[in-house]
């Protein structure tokens, strides 16, 4: 399904209703990716507008907006054939080891314009690339830490709500580890690195992983303390 065909235009009252229903549903069942996606879209328009303006001011961001690459199997499958030291191979290993598919993301439905719909789609599709760059696992701590980075990069309200929801579900040991180690690191990492929404990742798949981390100011995640 294309971005254009997936879109549904809503009035402000309808957006509020979808946001409220999605929030309640996501609290009841945090694994409902479709509800979380709907909440991001219906509450994130101002944030996506700011990201769009930043992308328009960046040469690489403008290239992304012009060419509209997609992180889907059809366009990124070559990453599985790259040398082990490359960014692309690290991404392929991350996806393969978890049996993830680039095509699993739900489509963006509630953005008002095609341009904003693409920005929201891009933000959704680069999520696993950021996991790879920062070396974050996909457990509750890893996902919560990445949401902090996403908030620092895009100021999406749902990111902070996800972090709050995640900390509520932590056990005592997880909460202590997150607050003492991962939260301070994620705030620093999200602020120090380059504007990650203005990076044309697909052009850098064949480059050395550590090289692109240095180039983009990426601070890898802390190791689990002994």
Automatic annotation (TrEMBL):
The source's superkingdom equals Eukaryota
- Reactions it catalyzes: a 4-hydroxy-3-methoxy-5-(all-trans-polyprenyl)benzoate + H(+) = a 2-methoxy-6-(all-trans-polyprenyl)phenol + CO2
Which EC numbers characterise this protein's activity in its record?
4.1.1.130
| Keyword set, alphabetical order | Lyase, Membrane, Metal-binding, Mitochondrion, Mitochondrion inner membrane, Ubiquinone biosynthesis, Zinc
Is Cytoplasm there in the keyword field? no
Query: Under which pathway is this protein filed?
Result: Cofactor biosynthesis; ubiquinone biosynthesis
Q: Which residues form the signal peptide?
A: none
Compartments, record wording? Mitochondrion inner membrane
Q: Which cofactor does it need?
A: Zn(2+)
State the membrane topology.
Peripheral membrane protein
What InterPro entries does the record tag this protein with? Coq4 (IPR007715), Coq4_euk (IPR027540)
Q: Which molecular-function annotation in GO is an example for this chain?
A: zinc ion binding
Leading EC class: lyase
Question: Which parts of the sequence bind Zn(2+)?
Answer: 127-128, 131, 143
Chief location of this protein within or outside the cell: mitochondrion
GO CC, sorted alphabetically, is:
extrinsic component of mitochondrial inner membrane
Key word Flavoprotein present: no
Q: Which HAMAP family match?
A: Coq4
State whether it acts alone or in a complex, and with which partners, per the record: Component of a multi-subunit COQ enzyme complex.
What function is annotated for this protein? Answer: Lyase that catalyzes the C1-decarboxylation of 4-hydroxy-3-methoxy-5-(all-trans-polyprenyl)benzoic acid into 2-methoxy-6-(all-trans-polyprenyl)phenol during ubiquinone biosynthesis.
Hey, which family's this protein in? Belongs to the COQ4 family.
Name the chain's protein: Ubiquinone biosynthesis protein COQ4 homolog, mitochondrial
Lineage, highest ranks first:
Eukaryota, Viridiplantae, Streptophyta, Embryophyta, Tracheophyta
């Amino acid at each position: 399904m294309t971005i254009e065909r997936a879109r549904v235009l809503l009035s402000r009252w309808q957006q509020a209703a979808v946001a409220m229903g999605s929030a309640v549903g996501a609290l009841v069942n945090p694994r409902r990716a479709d509800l979380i996606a709907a909440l991001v879209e219906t509450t994130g328009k101002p944030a996506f507008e700011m990201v769009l303006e930043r992308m328009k001011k960046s040469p690489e961001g403008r290239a992304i907006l012009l060419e509209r690459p997609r992180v889907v199997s059809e366009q990124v499958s070559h990453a599985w054939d790259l040398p082990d030291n490359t960014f692309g191979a690290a991404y392929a290993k991350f996806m393969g080891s978890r049996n993830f598919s680039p095509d699993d993301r739900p489509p963006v439905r509630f953005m008002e314009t095609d341009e904003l719909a693409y920005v929201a789609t891009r933000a959704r599709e680069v999520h696993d690339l950021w996991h790879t760059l920062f070396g974050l696992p996909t457990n509750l701590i890893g996902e919560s830490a990445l949401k902090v980075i996403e908030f620092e990069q895009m100021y999406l309200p749902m990111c902070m709500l996800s972090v709050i929801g995640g900390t509520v579900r932590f056990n005592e040991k997880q909460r202590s580890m997150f607050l003492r180690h991962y939260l301070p690191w994620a705030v620093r990492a999200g602020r120090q690195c380059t504007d990650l929404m203005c990076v044309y990742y697909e052009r850098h798949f064949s480059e050395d992983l550590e090289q692109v981390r240095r180039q983009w100011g990426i601070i890898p995640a802390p190791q689990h303390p002994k």
